Amino acid sequence: MQRNKRCLLAYLMHRLQQIKGLRWDLGTSVIPDNIKTNLNPREVQFFSEYDKMLGDYMRSVNELDLTMDLNQPPKNLFIEVRVKQDVGALVTESGNTINLRANTTHFLRRTDVEPLIRQGVLEHIN
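Below the sequence we write its predicted structure tokens.
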């Protein structure tokens, strides 16, 4: 009985770590529908609360986005991206609004589009 309990707790801890990792990998608070269907309501609630806590912390340290990919320093501040699917209006850090329509290309700041690249909505053009 104790072994089963330990196995179940290890499984639940693994799922929570995966949910936390999902928030860091996506860089956004929106769970894709194909993943959301595999989560139970309490896991979705955990994701939302973890996202809120992470957002509060990032705001407390001068609006620093900790979810950016910092494995390698960026070579260019601006990158060229192709829009894979309609996104709508994107408000950049500078306050400009850009309409992202499918099959269009844009030359934008890396920090503005990196979360969308990770979500698979935009594609970085080399």
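The CA atoms of residues 91 and 97 lie 4 Å apart.
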